User: Which sequence fits this backbone?
């Protein structure tokens, strides 16, 4: 009985935290669930041939993911009209993407991406990466790593018109929130 009460309380607390952190968000749920915008982006025109130079510009943008380089290079990499979706946001406006990426650098002491060689299937580019991040709130030597992959398409001028990122922020972000981290650990133990 006592254990059930503790688990129920923890579950309610977790729901409360999730509602507080996401309740006012404009982000639609399910960023790996195909929605209308995703389906339309899949049908949008793009260059059908491999573009290693365009992939190299994407890699260069994320190699040093800090405020100045991101702000200076983002408009060279992304087209005015595009589809972008990662684990947190879905964006279609270049100013919004620039703002999102620059603001994303603020809590970081350092962040970089190590990319594997790009893989092309016609005009589809797949970039496997390892993100290495050190948050401002962590000790300087506390580097976290996370694996991910980006599916990218370019227009005829070599700018990104489609990007779907696949990665799990659970280990390096969510699991570090005290109550949420505990709940995630318990769920993983039960699976």
Assistant:
């Amino acid at each position: 009985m006592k254990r059930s009460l503790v688990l129920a309380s923890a579950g309610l607390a977790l729901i409360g935290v999730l509602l507080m952190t996401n309740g006012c968000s404009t982000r639609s749920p399910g960023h790996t669930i195909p929605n209308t915008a995703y389906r339309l982006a899949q049908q949008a025109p793009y260059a059908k041939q491999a573009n290693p130079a365009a992939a190299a510009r994407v890699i260069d943008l994320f190699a040093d993911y800090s405020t100045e380089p991101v702000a200076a290079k983002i408009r060279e990499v992304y087209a005015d009209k595009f589809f972008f979706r990662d684990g947190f946001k879905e964006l279609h406006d270049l100013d919004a993407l620039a703002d999102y990426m620059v603001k994303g650098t603020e809590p970081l002491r350092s962040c970089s991406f190590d990319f594997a060689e790009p893989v092309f299937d016609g005009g589809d580019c797949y970039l496997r990466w390892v993100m290495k991040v050190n948050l401002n709130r962590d000790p300087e030597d506390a580097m976290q790593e996370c694996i991910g992959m980006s599916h990218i398409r370019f227009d005829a001028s070599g700018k990104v018109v489609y990007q779907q990122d696949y990665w799990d922020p659970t280990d390096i972000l969510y699991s570090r929130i005290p109550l949420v981290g505990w709940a995630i650990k318990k769920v993983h133990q039960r699976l």
User: Anything to note?
Assistant: The domain at 31-190 is CATH 3.10.450.50 (Nuclear Transport Factor 2; Chain: A,). The CA atoms of residues 142 and 169 lie 17 Å apart. The radius of gyration is 19 Å.
